[in-house]
Amino acid sequence: MSARRAPVPWLSVRPCRALADERWTVFSVERAPPAAELTVHALLRSEDGDDWEACGHYVSDAAGAVDVCEDVCVGGTYSGVEPMGLLWSLRPVPGSRPNLRLRKKDIGTPMVVTISLHQGFHTAGFPERRPLASLAVERWYLAPGVRRVELTEGGVTGTLFLPPGPGPFPAVLDMWGGGGGLVEYRAALVASHGFVTLALDYMAPKRSAGVVSLVGNDYFEAAFSVLQSHPQVSRDRIAILGLSFGASMALGLSVYSPAIKPSCLVCFSGSHVQPAGGSLGDIFAEFRKNSKNTRYDEEQQVIWRDLLLPIPSDPSKKVDVGRLCCPLLLIVGEDDQNWPAEESARDMKEMMDRSGNGHLLSVLSYPLTGHLIDPPYSPHCRASNFMTTESREKFVVLWGGQTPAHCGAQEDSWWKTLDFLKKHLCYGPQSDITSCP
Known about the structure:
Elements: E1 10-14, E2 17-19, E3 26-30, E4 37-45, E5 51-59, E6 66-67, E7 75-76, H1 85-88, E8 91-92, E9 111-119, E10 133-140, E11 147-151, E12 158-162, E13 169-175, H2 185-191, E14 196-200, E15 206-208, E16 211-213, H3 217-229, E17 233-243, H4 245-256, E18 264-268, H5 280-289, E19 295-296, E20 302-303, E21 328-333, H6 341-355, E22 361-366, E23 383-387, E24 394-398, H7 403-426
Parallel strand pairs: 2-10, 13-14, 13-17, 17-18, 18-21, 21-22
Antiparallel strand pairs: 1-3, 3-6, 4-5, 4-9, 5-7, 5-8, 9-10, 11-12, 12-14, 15-16, 19-20, 23-24
GO molecular function, one term: fatty acyl-CoA hydrolase activity
Protein name: Acyl-coenzyme A thioesterase 3
GO biological process, one term: acyl-CoA metabolic process
């Protein structure tokens, strides 16, 4: 009589095809040996050809099962009860190029993550190991039916994302920071929640006869006008969402531009310190003037947060947020090593309280959180390669943050941002709630 074969372990993840901000509802292992040491492993190849991985250690129960959504991870690249730990703890595999940052470029394709199950506790050497089970999951930034439209209207360069249906929809102008280029993944994800979203390219410098120039405020006014005039947009329900330089521009334009009157603002990792009523070029000039305050850590990574410190008392050197007329959500990483976001938020609160518009301000401040606050389940980037917009110099910039806290802040701030947008764009007195997410 032949020996009875051991059952083959089974790995299940649902949904296996989902938006990038969607949690797994099922992540389970079945038919493993009872009380067995097991490793779940995630592998992702980026669009740049770099491999990223994460792993978690679990012990199966008496029935040979593990519920990753409920059970404690006892080691690996994360620990505790962390259903999405295999995503937010992704890191470059050993031997990779240094100082990488993982960002989705082609939002028309998913991030494909291969998840595998291994006998024993392991943290390395996965290519040489034969898994007990494996499967692939897809993480999308673009929901079905959302249209991507390249935009060059009115001299404005960007990408417009349109939710399915005739609208009119509330809209969001999305502006990234000093790294330049057209970054689409956050805008695509916002549009997947029911907002027309314009990812704006505004950092590309113009070079003529050896002279470098940046866009003026009229460029942002044109972008805002493009959104207002779009037939699927409700023109009186437009928000601006900005990170870093994008946050600074959002604050300045909302106070001083007669053509930009947003319904609300969301500012990640930004500051109001800039010449009052100035332009993007003026902000860069302020940075250049204070470049002597640049610091370096023990690994020679650039720390730029002191370029805007101390927060000036001179009102001509900062946006007069006391004049702001719309709700403002500030999202602050308390370990931001790139901008003085925490100090700026405190000063803005004092200014707005003194002016009587403090009721318009909400602040989300997160300990051990750095500058690059991405959508949820994105890997934490503490430092990365960076090229300046004007001079094209290359640095390794320290952004800050500690991985578990930073990734928790990304998740918490994302859902609170969407709630803030819905509250102020969808449920006001002029809103048509049926066209809102």
